[in-house]
Design brief:
Layout (H helix, E strand, L loop, with lengths): L16 H8 L21 H4 L2 H8 L4 H18 L3 H9 L3 H7 L5
Helix pairs in contact: 3-4, 4-6
């Protein structure tokens, strides 16, 4: 058996600079998903204030816009999956279940 390197066929898909920056940046960095961050505010939203997990992210220095984006993403997860009994039971036991699930990147 000889060594061979897999080389995929060239794609016709054109990647924009924004897409490339999202792929190479790590979550939480300034370049990560910059185009989709909500506008900056001086005061955190009610979604952020209600979550000890997100407040801790702010305290540790994460960009407030990224924290707000995560809060909104967790809210979308909650609305989509709260009717499933498995998720409903977990959310009852753990107050930050939806925020931690969103942060786990399972849904990305």
């Amino acid at each position: 058996m000889r060594n061979s390197i897999f080389k995929p066929e060239p794609s016709e898909t054109v990647l924009t600079d924004a897409c490339l920056s999202m792929m190479v940046a790590r979550p939480g960095s300034l370049a990560f998903n910059e185009a989709h961050l909500p506008p900056a505010t001086s005061e955190p939203s009610e979604l952020v204030k209600a979550s000890p997990y997100l407040i801790e992210m702010l305290r540790l220095g994460m960009d407030s816009r990224e924290v707000e984006r995560r809060a909104q993403g967790a809210q979308r997860l909650k609305e989509a999956y709260c009717s499933i009994p498995f998720h409903a039971r977990k959310a009852e036991k753990y107050p930050d279940y939806w925020n931690e699930r969103y942060a786990s990147c399972i849904n990305w």
